[in-house]
Amino acid sequence: MNKAKRYNITIKIVSILIAIIMWSYVMSEVNPRITQDFSNIKVTYLNQNYLTESNLEIMEPKEAKVTVKLAGRRSDITINPNDIIVQADLWGYSEGMHRVPVEVKIPDNVTLETVSPKYIQFKFDSVITREFKISLKTTGKIENGFTPGEGEIKPSSILIKGPRSWVNTVSRVIATVDLTNINSDIKTSLPVRALDDKGDEVRGIEKEPVTVEITMPILGTKTVKVNPRLKGTPLEGYSITDIQVNPISVKIKGKKEILNDIEFLETEPIDVENISMSKQIPIRIALPEGVELMETDLNPLAKIQVEKIIEKDIELSTENLTFINLDTSHIVDSTSLPENLTITVRGTEGKVEALREKDITFYSDLSGLEKGTHNINVKVILPDDIELIQMEPETFSIIIQEEF
């Protein structure tokens, strides 16, 4: 090889080396290798159909995001975040808490440095169905003189479907009826609400059905007295002196046409057979068909007062004896009268012991009697419930004189 050719080869090699050096410089200084964070990259959930087939539902997180750090040349790393695909495969998991790894797919001209977090903490719940009875709730002030009767719900129960954690928070299911200014029977369709133990509505569940048919009679109200009804007789020598029913009156409800004919209610028969002392007895109020008590927790009582029957002798002064129908020209010689009359009375102990002469009226009817001596009898008027047994003497003589 001649000298000229060797020189040309040398020049070419040097040129190539210089080009490589210049390219390396440009790449390292002008388009260097760098890293960049891409935050809030949404995680795509794979195989959610597996969860549906397995009656599972994602409780948390409903949505997951990660931060991805990529490395590459400055010119290559300026990419659209939508080109970064992050996935979590949910195949094969069961109910409970699980750490699921994420998989990142990126463009070919960059490399993955880190992903944070590398795992997503999932909570899976089984989807369950429970049946609940529907209760009826009323709101609003009904028109005066009316009250709601017992409502009927069709259907009477509902199926609640959803994640176990949510379904198990349901404590009751209600349908709400507004009674504001209502005075006639109600028939309507109402939505049902599933509530937790705090009264808040439980969301995220399915209800079947979502509405129910409500029928509710609207009844009239009335306050009536309660009268006691007895059966049997007290022990011989004793008497019932008083009966007090508590409450003495009750508020009832029913159809207006039924209530219009009711003036009072009676108790069911109160057994006083051979009773010999005062006592309180639980009682029941007899209700006509179609009539109910407004207070369902009422515990009525009858207070029965029983007293012993006694006899007692009472002396009456003849000074207080009254003569009626005596001729106006005649008078009775007071010296001919006995000083006292003795009567024997019978009654309950309390009344007999409280009896005084001022409470007794006694008189003799002298119709048609002329001057002279006459045998007369005396009539006695006693307070109610006190009986006259005898009087001593039954008859006696008096002298009627001309009035001077």
Q: What does the model show?
A:
- It is a single chain.
- By secondary structure, the chain is mainly β.
- It has six helices and 32 strands.
- The termini are far apart.
- The mean pLDDT is 91.
List the topology elements.
Elements lengths: L2 H28 L2 E14 L1 H6 L2 E5 L4 E9 H4 L7 E5 L6 E10 L5 E6 L2 E21 L6 E3 L3 E3 L2 E7 H4 L4 E7 L7 E6 L1 E3 L10 E3 L2 E6 L1 E10 L2 E2 L6 E9 L2 E6 L1 H4 L4 E3 L3 E2 L7 E4 L8 E3 L7 E17 L4 E3 L5 E3 L7 E9 H6 L6 E5 L6 E6 L1 E3 L5 E6 L2 E8 L2
Parallel strand pairs: 1-4, 7-11, 16-20, 17-21, 25-28
Antiparallel strand pairs: 1-3, 2-7, 3-6, 4-5, 5-7, 7-10, 8-16, 9-15, 10-14, 11-13, 12-15, 16-19, 18-24, 19-23, 22-24, 24-27, 26-32, 27-31, 28-30, 29-32
From the N-terminal CA to the C-terminal CA, the straight-line distance is 201 Å
How many β-strands, per DSSP? 32
Major sheet size, sense and barrel closure = 11 strands, mixed
Query: Could you list the spans in which at least 5 consecutive residues all have pLDDT below 50?
Result: none
Percentage beta strand: over 45%
- The proportion of residues forming helix, as a percent range, comes to 10-25%
Structural class: mainly beta
Shape: rod-shaped
Q: How many helices does DSSP assign?
A: 6
- Rg over CA atoms: 53 Å
Average residue-wise pLDDT: 91
